[in-house]
Each structure stands twice: as structure tokens, then as C-alpha cells.
User: Fold this.
Amino acid sequence: MTTLANRPNTALLVIDVQTGVVEGTHARDTVVANVGSLVDKARDEGVPVVWVQHSSEHLAKGSDAWRIVPELAPDDGEAHIDKSYADSFEDTTLETVLSGLGVGRLVVAGAQTDECIRSTLHGAIVRGYDAILVGDAHTTEDQSEWGAPPPDKVIAHTNLYWTYHTAPGRTAGTVDTDAVDFGGTS
Assistant:
């Protein structure tokens, strides 16, 4: 259903599952395990896995905190996107990589729910992609001290509104890890 012409393929987009990003996040180990299951399934089905890594003043590229968590290991042939903004498309090569792979549908997992996950989902939909959020494979840190809801509520709210998100000619939605269908609309 994507509005992108000649882009029938799906990719798994793994956003910011980095040591310093997911350390101390809600249900960290479960989310990382679910991301691992998604990566294995995508690889088994020949679906491209695209790894996104954030860097900033507080998350220096090449540092231990910047590295993908030790439980996950990107393959050498898998795309890697460096970013410095919340939206994984903003000022990166992501669009070029996805276009080259013929991808018009994204299955999204990673961190942080209330920043990079939300921004990338919206960035994808406005650029013409179908964007499916894996509801039990994203997480965030506790920012309730600054007025945000607790992390489980942030995650639940994001899952709720993305389930019902719509755009002309594009598909959004939320599914759990065990219900991900890389071959078609979940």
C-alpha cells in the first residue's frame, strides 16, 4: 500500500539499540530479546535489516555507549545509518539505502519510544512509507521527573495511537513480535 512507486519490499529498521541508549530503560532485556528475535526472523526470510545509531555530544561515535548492545550483532552486509537527529531520515542516507533496496514498508523497533521511534515513524509515513511499529520491541527511559508519564505508559500510548494512525495510501499499525509478518501488511 505504500505510495512509493516500485518499492514492494519490507525492511526491519532497528533504531538506537545502543548500550548507552537502552541502559536503564523500561523492560530493557525483554525489548532487546524481542529485537533479536525480529533480526533473526528477518534474516531467515531474506528481509533487509537496517541498523540506525545515534550520536551526539553525550553519545560520542565510537564510544562504548554508542555501540550496539552486545546481545545483538549486525552482519557486515547489513546497512548501517549514522544519525544525529531524532528522525532517522533527517540528514542521513536512510532514504537512499531504502530506495536501493526497493523498500516501501518498514517494521520499526528500538529506542527511545518518545523521541527517535515516534519521530522516525512519522518521518516514514510523511515520506510515503508504510510503517509498522513492533509494540513489544521498543522502549524508553523514565522521564517522569520532568513531567512525562512513566515509561510503560509512554510505550502503551505510542502503541495505541500508532495502531490507529492513518495516511492516504499508506499503512500504519502496531503488532507484537510474534505477529510480525515481513511478507505483507501485519
User: Anything to note?
Assistant: Residues 51 and 74 are 7 Å apart (CA to CA). Strands lie at 9-15, 49-54, 79-83, 103-111, 130-139, 172-175.
